[in-house]
Amino acid sequence: MTNQSSVLPFERPKAAQAETRPLMEARNITKYLGGKLILDQVSLSLNKGEFKVLIGPSGSGKSTLLQCLHFLLIPDKGDVLLEGKSAMDMSHKNICAFRQEIGMIFQDFNLFDHLTAKDNVAIALRKVKKWSKDQALSKARDELDKVGLADKAELYPAQLSGGQKQRVSIARAMAMEPKLMLLDEPTSALDPELIGEVLNVVANLAKGGMTMLMVTHQIGFARHLVHEINFMENGRVIESGHPESLLANPASRTAMFCARLSELTGNQ
Amino acid sequence: MSLLPDFSFYNAVIYIIKGTGLTVSLIIGSMLIGLTLGLPMAAIQVYGPRWGRFLVGLYVWFFRGIPILVLLFLFYFGIFGLAERLLGQILERRINLPPFLATLVTLGLTSGAYQSQIFRGAILSLHLGQYKAALSLGFTRVGALSHIILPQALRVAIPAWANEYSILLKDSALAYVLGTTEIMARIKQMVWITHLHVPFYILAGLIYYFLTWLGIRALKRLETKTRIPGLGMEMEAEIAKNDQSV
Ligand SMILES: Nc1ncnc2c1ncn2[C@@H]1O[C@H](COP(=O)(O)OP(=O)(O)O)[C@@H](O)[C@H]1O
Ligand SMILES: [Mg+2]
């Protein structure tokens, strides 16, 4: 015997699909720095749970793009939409709220030197989110625990290794419970033996369904984990696609760039 | 040699040392005024808009370009004279602003100019990325400055602050020209009465030397107390190594 409800499962995906607008969308971002065109109408989108990678030669505008997406730099033209809401023309207060929704990881960590690891994680919870000290510190301990640094909570940045610093900075960003994370070469300032511990943490975030856009040259890591590679050159995204399809095609710019990278670094 | 009935060298020394209170309040007062002015001015110079940087630049240029003695007269006879006349007209009685106030304001404003440059250097010495990181966590610009940049800039500025203290201490010795009865004014009085130049100027030197030593020691202690663990360790280890090898 059939009834109405049995067809519902077929309708649901449709309804869900109508709702899926990208979590974040960059439309034709153009940015000039020092009179030079650095970003030339870059468009890019991230759906919830997607993990995308941005690669490209040094100076191609990857860091500038990430900072525009976060409104640390204001795009000269174009728009950034978070859950469909435009970030252009926002008031200063709303920009601060917008930034809270996005986590940023920097190449050189940028930990607050005068604060212990746990206070690095707690301070924005206290001063930006206005949590109580106890609440913030307990959240900070949880987040440090997730990156395997529960025992380093009382140490200052200068007492930590590079890999540990980057893990604290990930804990600091994650404590704000952002909707997505932007990572700008999180391992390129690290000694080779410390890269693994940071990539592990990033892989865990990916497994947990975190939406991420990461600039990296760790292609071996990226090709198995990410949904899409975007290749940037001269301020434009000139190629994007699934890692396997891009890397399998030896004529693709991405494959050629990665081949040159692995020549330089020896293996991978 | 007793022009005054109960004059003795002992009484003279006590009288002069009592002027130390005025000198010390002058220095502490003007350092605090300078701090209050210098911090925001430094922030404007590093992070502010172009017109703000221009105004601060003008201010700093003015106070650094004119000798303290000229500034003292300018403020006392010019601005304070004007203020006395205006206040007098409003309140309809004669107003006398104490020369101490004019000295304090002049030294404070001057120190503000110098301290703005101390803090500017301190802010610039910090890793600029920390400001960006704070903004990326949702801090406002003022929040990032006060919670992240300021606590570190203050620490970095302590050695330069010790320097500023010893300069102010010596500048404050000029306050006597306006009739503030601090150490130097009292020394002058005693010299004038006794004609004993050398002993009283030696005494003045000793008092200023002691105050310099005390202030710098206190700031050194503050520096040690507020040192961030681990920071600058490599450099210190390096220095210690070099010390041993010499
Ligand atoms: N503040 C700035 N003023 C002028 N040019 C800049 C500035 N910041 C970056 N650039 C230039 O923008 C280009 C892109 O830089 P960046 O985004 O850091 O590249 P990537 O991260 O891909 O190496 C580079 O040529 C760099 O010199
Ligand atoms: Mg970069």
Give keywords.
heterodimer; A: 268 residues; alpha/beta; four-stranded antiparallel sheet; 10 helices; 22% strand; B: 246 residues; mainly alpha; MetI-like fold; flat; binds adenosine-5'-diphosphate; binds magnesium ion
Helix content of chain B: over 70%
Number of domains of chain B: 1
What is the oligomeric state here? Answer: heterodimer
Radius of gyration of chain B: 22 Å
> Strand count, sense and closure of the main sheet of chain A?
6 strands, mixed
The CATH superfamily of chain B is known as: MetI-like
Beta content of chain A: 15-25%
The number of helical segments of chain B is 9
CATH class of chain B: Mainly Alpha
The largest sheet of chain B is: none
Number of strands of chain B: 0
* Annotation field: number of helices of chain A: 10
Q: Detail the poorly predicted runs of chain B.
A: none
Question: Which H/E pattern describes the elements of chain B?
Answer: HHHHHHHHH
Order of helices and strands of chain A: HEEEHEEHEHHHEHEHEEHH
Coarse morphology of chain B: flat
Category from helices, strands and their pairing of chain B: mainly alpha
**Termini separation of chain B (Å)?**
57 Å
Number of strands of chain A: 10
What integer is the average pLDDT of chain B? 88
Description of the molecule:
The complex is a heterodimer of chains A (268) and B (246). Helices cover 41% and strands 22% of the residues of chain A. Chain A has 268 residues and is α/β, with parallel strands linked by helices. Chain A has a domain at 111-177. The model of chain A is unreliable at 1-18 (pLDDT under 50). Chain B has one domain (9-236): MetI-like fold (Orthogonal Bundle), CATH 1.10.3720.10. Chain B contains nine helices and no strands. Chain B has helices spanning 9-47, 50-65, 68-91, 99-125, 129-136, 141-172, 183-194, 197-225, 233-245. Chain B is flat and about 70 Å long. Chain B starts with 8 loop residues before the first helix and ends with a helix. The interface between A and B is medium-sized, with 34 and 25 residues. Residues 33-34, 36, 38, 56, 58-64 of chain A line the site of adenosine-5'-diphosphate.
